[in-house]
Amino acid sequence: MSNKPIIFLAFANDPAHPLPALADEARAIQDALKPAQEKGLCEIIPEPYATLDRVLAAFREHPDRVAIFHFAGHAGGDTLLLEAAGGQTTAANAGGLARFLAEQAGLALVFLNGCATREQAQGLLDAGVSVVIATSQKIKDKVAASFAAQFYTSLAKGVTLRRAFGEAEGAIQAATSGQSRELFAEAMIASAAGELPWALYKRPGAEDALSWNLPAAANDPLFGLPPLPLLDLPDKPYRYLDWYRREDAEVFFGRGHEIRQLYDRVTAADGAPIVLFYGQSGVGKSSLLAAGLLPRLEGSHEVRYARRDQAQGLAGTLAVALGTGPNAGLTMAWRRLEAQAGRPLLIILDQVEELFTRPNREQPNEMAVFLAAAAALFGDPGHRPAGKLILSFRKEWLAEIKERLAERSLPRTEVFLERLDREGIVEIVTGPRRTERLRAQFSLEIGDPLLPGQIADDLLADRESPVAPMLAILMADLWDAARARSYDQPVFDENLYQELRSRGLSLDDFLGRQLGLLHGKLPEVIDSGLALDLLAHHTTPLGTAEQRTLADLEQTYRHRLDVLPALLQECRDLYLLVDPSKNQPDQPRASRMTHDTLAPHVRKRFDESVAPGPQARRILESRATDWKEGKEGTLLDAVDLALVEAGAQGMRAQKPDEVRLVQASAVARIRHLEEQQQQARALKAQESKAATRLRLLLIILTGLALIAPGLWIRQQVLKQQARSPLVRIPASRYEIGSPATVIEVPEFRIERYEVSNQQYRLCVRARACGIPTDPVMYEDASLANHPVVYVTAYQADAYCRWLGRRLPINAEWDRAAFGADHKTWPWGSAALDPARVNMKFSFSDALGTSPVNSHPDGRTINPEGIFNLVGNVWEWTTTPTTGDPYGIDPEWKTPLVEWARGSLMTRGGSYLDYADNGTDWLTMVSSAVPRYAVEFLGFRCAENP
């Protein structure tokens, strides 16, 4: 069954007062629409002798498919004159017909090309019809026929209702030289002088209805747009996370409706000069601009594309795009470029949100300066240039940008790029089979016709998933795997898809896989941590992508120029980094994440890495703060210095303050060794009678200075690797318990995460801890980052004291969980849900621990960032159940084995507990004897200031 839009043409003549040109109008409209009909964009139902019954029957026979109802004949303010049996005419009540037409869901336009139908237009709008074309006066039927033919000729080319009407008006004005006597019936010339009889009316609130067009209605949105430039097709139809460029336009699938919408906004002669193009991170805004819009504007517009330059600011970036200086006249530069090109200028400013995420501290008024420049360009309607400005940015900044533009009364229109829908995903999967040229190039077969829909449904099942990047990875993997199976005849089938799904479809899986491939090419950059350091250098602390110039990279990694070029190339080949200058030929070479959504995954891996480079960088960045601006602070101890020296080749080049810190620490180490040797020589001189014994002592001392520290350093390295980041809790007067008891809680620090199996193994390797009583989960490599369980309170205490820390007391745990302001939950007042806690929400929920850094939505907010205080595993404290449960017991100063008695309090609940049983898991206190060890009880450490 066809779903193409129908254009219903109703003509009604009156034998008593015939309209000679009515038949000409019918033929002219059908001839105008013939190209669109042949392209499959519409169906035409002509009714040359329209009766009321035939009009109503046409709508009923094609429910919700009639998109345009065109009437031509005699009419008045409240009637349409239709034909009747016997060749007579009958008047159809306009009010009743309006109510009938308003019920037709597919109706986009009512065109009343009769005499003086303006009053009927208002009735149609009031009834609910979105758009009406009507006349204000009696008109000559030849001119009416000509206007209708011009309108439908434009509409058949794929333009919007608004544009088709404007072009028809222009054509009639040109043909009649603006003389009203050539338009109106003779008796009406005087009252109608100087105006056209037709008007386009829209219902309030239905502004988007004027953008209706045949291609979009027929689901062929690219019809009528300028053809793409004929370029060589790429070797692959999919680009992983890399942006689509101009040369990839022919394989940029799935965004036809959005390309059409943006194209229409940019080319609309009466449209707003500023277009706000926005969407969530990861939806593909830059690719749509570069591969979808720009190639279709090459013949009609002069296009300049630029990403915000942090150093230049928005106004400076705009000035560079215009080829002028930041203080020069931008309006004059814009007009000069349009005059030279002989066509409108379109400037695209991409990544505008970086004004907020990467502000230039030297330009605190950057937004105000840019708005002043935009006001100079577009503020005066009478002196605006012909072109337009597109501002492209992430959705979360829309309200701020709109508000600032509104303050300057700058006209703008909006285009929202939503995440890919099912139709778009299916088109991307089947895209390489879209045309004969593509089929010849890629020879792709779809083995299962249901597979594209299945892929779409799987990706859309998770509303929070970044669909575009996930689909990009999946399709590139599918293509490579299909070509590996059959190079000449690749096939996408169910088995291949399920095989790839089993490998994981997350961005973190992709990142891990690509880093593994990089290890096969350049193992040293992975083992040292240099690759992660380089990737992290392309992120911001907010977890967003950061662009770096090649000059910046060469300076930042000047000590690793031996491997930097190869590393950058491998990262590009593995679709981890991209050179954005490919879209900006006049810009210097640069480097950026292939996709913004990859940045937080890189940042997380870097922050948690135990490779030498990231460890060294974290030590330096935390310790060098005391050495800024020429100051001298605490030196690195032997362990930290050894880690920094070991990681120097796996991190960026050290900054001047860091160099001073490392050099001073190395000098102090040498001085310490020299002092030890001087002491040994002095001892030898004083004890000349015991030369042999002194020589032995010197050897021992020297050995201790040069060799024994190696064993000691090994211990310290294990400790450094095991240490979890701490969160500072300031001293406070704190209410606890019921009834409330006010206590003084001194300042302390508590670990951000529960102690993991991986961390506890390091203590076992150091022979400072015993193996858990049941090691099955401890020895499972897949659970390395899960909390260690089956540990007694004594074992937990031993681990913490090995690190120079201790188990927390009950009051400290309570203070960290509730915060000084006594929140309902660590994260605030929102109720328990699976995104925040690892607990049972139904009988069928799977059981098991989760990683110690999981459930980030459940982190504390004040203090910030403590994970899993509710759920996952119960946690040991050193507070006995007897005595004062809220007192600050000094016994934590000594090992637990020296004083523990009775039972100890445990807090927080676990994955085995039900979250929905009404228990407040934050206030509930459980207990266990110190030798108790089970699968749902773990711990975290605390520390004195």
Can you put this structure into words, describing what you see?
The protein is an alpha/beta fold and 945 residues long. It is 40% helix and 13% strand. A hairpin with a 5-residue loop joins β4 (79-83) and β5 (89-93). α9 (256-267) crosses α10.
Outline type: elongated
Label the structural class.
alpha/beta
Question: Radius of gyration in whole Å, from Cα?
Answer: 37 Å
Strand order of the largest sheet: 2-1-3-6-7-8
Number of separate strands: 27
**Largest sheet data:** 6 strands, mixed
Alpha-carbon distance between the two ends:
76 Å
Instruction: Report low-confidence residues grouped into runs of 5 or more.
Output: 180-193, 704-708
Fraction of residues in helix? 40-55%
Strand content: 5-15%
Mean model confidence by pLDDT:
85
Number of helices: 34
What are the salient characteristics of this protein?
elongated, alpha/beta, 6-stranded mixed beta sheet
What is this entry, summarized?
The chain has 945 residues and is an alpha/beta fold.
